[in-house]
Amino acid sequence: MTSLAAQLQAVASAVPREEKLKGKASLLYELREAADIDLATIYAVGVQGFTELCRLDGRFEAYQKPLFSRGASETNRELQDKAFNDKLNGVLEGFLRLVSGHFATAAAAKCLEYLIRRFKIHVYNVEAAVTCALPYHATAEFVKLVQLANLEGTSFYWLEGVKEKGAAPPR
Fold it and tell me: Where are the transmembrane segments (predicted)?
């Protein structure tokens, strides 16, 4: 095996596999419909939701530059190094903790839609994303988030039944 092939194999094994979807992962849209929506449109939707959240709670403003700026919208985390991704994960976890109290709002759904598409939180930040939504476990939005999430190897593996059946977990 050549050096390049070995490096590519190492990178591929380090990256969690996104489940095979027939379309793009989305909290707001159907998978096939989401595939037709470009990232610039998703970014605009996310910024709109973020602006609404900032009006509700000023603490969200701290996340404008690292997550909702034009520069952040052009960041591909899969092309970044470990240090960058560790820092990004910390920022995302803080944002998801804060947005948890607003999960049921349309503004939060818009922000999460952008974070799913741009930063793949349903693949790389499953623990934080599901924890954010857990208080709303009886909602359709929670079920959809769980269905998108890569639960394998997380503490939420027990939600596989929700993922397969598409129904909220029993109380």
Answer: none
